[in-house]
Amino acid sequence: MMPDLGKYADTVLSAYLVSIVLLVVLIAMSLRASRKARADLEQVETRRRG
Question: What is the pTM of this model?
């Protein structure tokens, strides 16, 4: 199901690869920031209660 890209195949496929890698990195960074924010919030809530 892949279209014939001719002489541009390397360029197009490398652009797809770079895009996928960047998306994975952005998702990983977002998840990491979310975990850190949640941990910080729990720490603040624990201090406030105690």
Answer: 0.76
